[in-house]
Amino acid sequence: MASTSDTLVHPDVRGYADVNRDAMRLLTRPGPGYLALLGMSVSLVGLAAFCWMWQLAYGMGMSGLNNPVGWGTYITTFVFWVGIGHAGTLISAILFLFRAAWRQSIYRFAEAMTVFAVLTAGLFPIIHIGRPWLFYYLLPYPNQRQIWPNFRSPLLWDVFAVTTYLTVSSVFFFIGLIPDIAAARDAAVVPWRKKAYSVLSLGWRGTDREWKHFTRAYLFLAALATPLVLSVHSVVSWDFAVSIVPGWHTTIFAPYFVAGAILSGVAMVITIVVPVRKIFHLEAYLTPMHFDRLAKLLLLTSTIVGYAYGMEYFMAWYSGELYERDVFLDRVSGDYWWAGWSMITFNGIVPHLLWFRRVRENLNYFFIISIIVNIGMWYERFVIIVPSLAHSYMPWQMVNYHMSWVEAGILMGSFGWFFMWFLLFLRFLPGLSIAEIKEVLPPPMRGTRETRLHAQQVPERQEIVEQPAPATAHLKRAQGE
Amino acid sequence: MSDGMKRRDFLKTVSVGGATLTAACKSDGVERLIPYVVPSEEIVPGVPTWYSTTCRECPAGCGMHVETHEGRATKVEGNPIQPISRGNLCARGQASVQGLYHPDRLQGPQVVEEGLEPRNITWGGAEQTLARRIRELQSAGRGASIAFLTERYTGTMDRLVDDWVRAIGARRVVYDPYQDQPRNLQFADADFLISFGADFLETWGSPVDYAWQFAQMRSPMIGQRGKFVWVAPHQPLTGLNADEWVAPRPGTEALVAQAIAGTVDVNSAAQQTGVQAQVLQRLATEFRGARKAVAMGPGQATAGSNASALQAAVDRLNGRASAPQGGDMRPLIQLVQQMRAGQVQMLLISAHNPVYTLPGGLGFEAALRRVPDRVSFSTFPDETAMLCTLRLPDHHFLEQWNDYVPRPDVRALVQPTMRPVFNTKQTGDVLLSVARYLRLNTVTPGNNGATYYDYLRNAWGGGTGDAWREIVKRGGSYPAVPAGPNTAAEVAGAVPPFATQPASGTAAGTANVNAPAVPGLEGTQQVVTPTSPPSLVTALPVATGSPVSTFEGGGDARFHLVVYPSYRFFDGRTANRPWLLELPDPVTKVPWTSWAELHPASAKELGVRQGEILEIRSPFGAVRVPAYVYPGVRRDVVAIQTGLGHKAFGRYTENRGVNPNLLLGPTAAPTGAFAPYSVRVSVQGTGEKSGELYEQGNRVQLDREIAQAVSLSEMRAFDAVVGAKVPGTIPGQNMQVETLRGHGGFQPVETPTDPAAYPPPGTEYGQYTEGKTRWAMVIDNDRCIGCGACVTACYAENNIPVVGPDQVRKGREMSWLRIERYFGVTQDQEEALRDDATSDVRFLPMLCQHCGNAPCEPVCPVYAAYHTPDGLNAQVYNRCVGTRYCANNCPYKVRYFNWFTYQFAAPLHWQLNPDVTVREKGVMEKCTFCVQRINEGQRNASLEGRPLNDSEVTPACVQTCPAEVFVFGNIADPNSAVARAAASNRSYRILEAQNTQPAIVYLQKVTLREPKKGHHADEMYGKRGEAGREHGGAAGTGSTGSQLEPHRAPAGAGSH
Amino acid sequence: MKRILILLGVLLLPVGAWGAYQGLETYQDEPGDKRQGPEQPIAFWHSVHAGQNQIPCMYCHYSAERSEGAGLPSVQVCVGCHAPGSGALPPEQAQLGFPQATRNKFWNAEATKLVDYWRRGEPIPWVKVHDLPEHVQFPHQSHVRVGLQCSTCHGQVQNMELVYQASTLRMGWCISCHTGEMELSPQEDATVRQRSSYIQGVRALAAAGSDVRGVDTRWPHQRASVDCTVCHY
Amino acid sequence: MRKPKTGVLGVFPYLDDTTEAIRRCRQEGIPVTVYSPTPRHEIEEALEATESPVRIFTLVGAFTGTASGAALAIWTSLDWPLITGGKEIVSLPAFTVIMFELTVLFGALATVIGLFINARLPQFFGEGKYHPSFSAGNFGVFAHIAPEKFETARTIMTESGSEEVLVEHAQ
Description:
A: mainly alpha, Formate dehydrogenase/DMSO reductase fold, 17 helices, about 65% helix
């Protein structure tokens, strides 16, 4: 028997039906802890809604923004959430294309996280604009004024990139869910759930024709989502990079932002998956190998991000550009030095603790590091946005920005909003990808039987094959028959 | 809806007389159209009507044109044919409409009975009450116990008050701070100007006129560069504009004047004043050697008990005796004594708020309380009016008929521009009706019910309708504005720059900056032309009184107190105008509050930092005021600006700042002039931080070469090299490109640096066509005195909201145009605290640059920011969704976001310009180059079927600037004023390396000594200096002249 | 068969979108108001004044050719006809001269209201029918001077009892006239083209040999500037 | 040729039994529908499946997206040409972002449409017999066959190792 650190699924999972059993367990009656968490999330959403109403009534002045610093917490949080939304598609699409089998048991969580993160991010452009009731001016729709939006504006690229990303990742998420919803439908006992799953599964039955087109479509979606995931944060980075603000106008921004996004996204996956694994007893599916792979991803992206930080400072010095140099000096020694150093420490230094096996394999440490990286990545966006604006070209207009209670409320509410959706997802949709985990399980074979197929040699997993699980019996139990 | 009701009442009132057409009244959900009952012949609805009048916000008496829309005065501008204003106005004048519509004005006559709330009464009742009380006193034989404390009326009102007072047997006492100062100095062509604390750019004399003359005197554009020396213990705005600051030991300023005049020994003067002997010697030499030298003083900052001696010395320097300055305080001091003794039964007050402005040591307030009948004629509920038992609010000057004689040759007329906003009554009319009640036949002969207007008309000699009409149209009678080049723009093409005028008439190598370029100034009547021949100097009387002041206060009172008038609030009378409160002080850049200026070394010694509250104690009182650490003040002096600290003056001044007059004593110079500079105070830090003091901006330029300067010698040498300018090239920029090439590296793409060349190659798409208009502006930093009149004019013209002190502290002020003030040029913030920091101060008007390649435009997702075919960077408010990306991407940070829907407290909203949209929350806004004026000009031109001439359009800032810093026009036309001005060798554009192609060309400030340079200066434009030095020597343009020698550090700053 | 239908559907989608666009535009161009204007303080019928009595528009709206506002008649102008000779009398003595009391009770009552306003010295608070938002500037004089007829924008006022808004007054409507897409009568079009300062400007530029590329490519029949700041500032 | 709606369904716990049944049915010329909880290439091999045409949809969708992105950005910019920042009215570098995004968006949506058309989804009244255990662990082979030939199929199923054989008589 192989060591546990390199198994994708714990050997205790003996067959296809076990996967169903474990996945369906997530959908059963919630405990008080879950309800408390959900209640807390919903309250935070309520708080944010109140803050936003307040801001709508009185104006953007309720934020801490001022004339040189036109963007602050809202855009920081927008970029933060868009960044979080990257790990999901990375894990589900890019690792799918790379045939990284370890993605199967984790990708559904990551993908759900992506969809909800982008859903959260998408709120912020609306919250941050001065006249949200005119948001539709940004959409290219025919109107009697004969005026169209300006396609030269990076903000319009953003509108397209974020909506495209939201649409494509939702579609990708949903398409991947169809077979699993069908499984949930087949296992459901509560009538309304059964009905709902029946509709959502679109009548999926797992026929050969369905699978044939499904696998192809999924592959193409993955192939489309891959450049998209790289592009969306590039486009977000161009919001900054194509401007002329010192500290923003940098060619390194696109790759730097993508790496940062993956870093923060992976950290968020860890932040979510560690407690989920614990609470729902998914140790069999989320094995140390998964965490080992995630740790490597974190290390890689942290190194890229750290390199980007260094490069920015090098270029600021090497270019001799006065404004650039001032901004970068200001980041570490000016009024926002605490944010600057938090960013460098949290993103560029702390993750390197993962080189140590002891840290990497201790989920508590890992969880803490992931939280630190999350905070650091929020600070990274803050440091890019706020000090650069507060310390731009005109020496006369250098005014500092301080977050207001309205912004703090909306920032907290964004976490509430995100976790609300995520918690609901955990209860109502299969969090484990049932069909795809089965792909990495050995198929049930009547081992002793002579077949005309080529020999199925699975020496290492012989024992599993030899003890087939009573699939139908289990299912009947589940259906309450 | 009290608001709606008031508005409708107003409409009713004005429309009966035929003065309004449309105004929105949404109270019943529909827009209403309110027509006239009887139409006025002069008014076409929708077309503004202009009235001539005279500004009465200060004694200067600037001519004014008032724009009215449907019977509402909305904007004031200078009267271009009046010689005092020359079409310009200061910030106070611009803000006068806010006084007119001030929501806290007294709205009608009130009587206050002991222990009761003020009661509103009718005018008839008020006048009868007053007449009855006077009669009672007269019949009791105590008519002499009635006193009338008035401002210094000069015209008809002066006569009326005198007649009236004489008729009732009362007496009149005149009190008018800062009134008695010379307003007829002529120094536009002087090459040496020395001021002994006379802040003539702010309040002293005639600031608008003097600012223009000052700019002319130092304008290299018209071929002269006079030197200005400031002698005073601190530097207010005027002092900051000086080429040299001499800060003698407090109280010894007169000795400096005498030393320059040669009436005292230089060495002994040096010893007493603390100014180095060679400095005094040099000043004397420069003064005497100048072709025309003018001295000014004393100002408030130097008005101690030696003021008479100082004035005598100044007169000696000018070779001409002048009227006593500072008024005569002795009758007033006597009156206060009598009031305190209960000998005054009735005091009528039409002077400007004496309770606030008089020194605390005089005890006027307590004395006033002892007078049983106190009558105020104040328009505002100020401290004096609040203490009075009968309040008879006068019309605002924009509502009244009056006249005023600011200087002998100008007799200015004040005419109403609209119906009174409130139930006020002209004081003249009140006096006349009281006279009628009292049957004073000397005042109202025949008792025929004549109004003050008739009285005034009589005083002007009646005249036929047409003659009177002409006088009203002109706004009085006065000589013509002297001919000659008025603005830099006009002369830019006419007068060749220095280089083409090689040493004209100055064979001896004297700098031709001395060449007179403003001929015809002598055309004015009664002009003071100080010619200072030595013989005349000796003929003048010698000084009266000691040349050295004495100071009250001893013990730990180590600091001399300077209480100086405010550019914005004058003596405090304009302090309740929101525009002026929001306008930061030109020197300290502090809005909305008071401060005490403290030298950095003193601050260090006291252990206080900027913003810490100081307790300042004098023998007469104490105030708590935040410290402002500023090297422009002597170490042993603390300076506080007057104007704020009102106990009553309406909502905007509530709890704002302190009243430094409370610290002063009732000291007067031997001539009776008030001597505020005669108190020593103790200063202590309290360790408390002020939440009020907020200094806008940065004191140093961080090496960024935003506000550039060039020394006169360097400029002249460079001019000699480059020669006559071809419009369309800016040498500094070409030099930069050359420098880059010389250093290898990237080959820069050559972009045309001249806005006239807009659009640059590669950007000419769409509707842009050759030959079309390209609006542009030239800003001459050298002329800019930093006052901020343009800022207030911009507020008035463009409906810019006042956001209040809390929002200003958050960096949310909306001033489309701001004046940046830099003490230093490098990254080192300490540079602004060094003693020489104020020796090279740069003022920079910063507004939307209307860039050709505007970075704000392409980032707007909805085309709210875009470029118009005539080169404006337009902002379409109704399209804006408020992403604020444009403001982020604006390198000049001149875009302002509406964080809230700002309110204009009724009736201030009647001032709103109907031609400009009022912006709501969530919308970005910025300078439009006054596009409404461009459109109006365009419309008028096209109605006449002709193309628009660029001289027809003048943005509000350009229009009002007293120093005529701005030139606006179509730069695509090479013959336009703006194109010619832009062709100067001093021209540069800010942040040009960003290739934004701004439409605003700045002209470098010209300094007499070598200007400060940032660390990047050599890269930016050092090549020019090199070229200048090399070629300057080779071309043999000769010595740069005595004025061009590097100057020593200001003697005073280092001498204590 | 099913696939063909679906394919057809996909192909028809843009066509449908275009149709929706057109529909939306038409819908939005429809003047929302009913064919009867709002209640006014006095039942003033333009059909009587401009229609039957043929009073020219600019007799009452006197500033249309020299001001941004068209101008409203003062009460004095109204009583000039309705209470002849009242100009010489104090307002309190004004007497209604017309319409006569005997002719129509309703009209008599309405006209009496007018005289009452005059006697009280009060303006008549008319309800605004053509109410542009505050962010739009519309100068009447420029439009009148180039020869546009009042009825082009305001409709056949001489047939209206209570005036209603005949045009949408929406931006697209304004723009379509400026770009020349809106039909004008041939005479009107001719005068506009002759007098428009925009067209004159382009002609002058072209005559001076300037490059006017791009000026007339988008809207070949453009009549006036479509620059945003012409109306919004 | 239309497959009969009636038929015999074999439920198989083992993959190799399933492929056996498929092969035998196909040898008999009986068209089959195979149910599986997860896609298995063994089944595809046994069915000798052809390439899915979804890729054509993706390709066409993606190119349509590119074209629409370009058309949208260019046409709207020209519809009312406004200069911003001295840039060209048709600023292609900026528009490539729009083109790219619409390429991906349309490509993805077209792929989904292709999937739905080809896999005949959504299908709420599925044809043929189904067993809920197919989504859990079991495989199923449904032989489309007329009722009179049920026995043949039943034999194949049983012999191949079917745990349970169900028949569909309807229609």
